[in-house]
Write a structure and sequence with these properties.
By secondary structure, this protein is mostly loops. It contains one helix and two strands. Strands 1-2 form a two-stranded antiparallel ribbon. Strand 1 and strand 2 form a beta hairpin. The longest helix has 4 residues. The chain is elongated and about 50 Å long. The termini are far apart.
């Protein structure tokens, strides 16, 4: 838990990577390849 009233410290991430609990920044390995294919054409 993080005390939101503390303005001098930053909170940390806690996440499950599928094998263990991690305390670092989550990794975003997914690349969006569908958005360009389905967006409206620009005129």
């Amino acid at each position: 838990m993080f005390n939101d009233s503390t303005t001098t410290d930053a909170s940390q991430s806690i996440w499950w990577d599928g094998t263990k609990i991690r305390w670092d920044k989550p990794i975003n390995e997914k690349v969006d390849t569908q958005t360009k294919l389905i967006e409206r054409p620009k005129n």
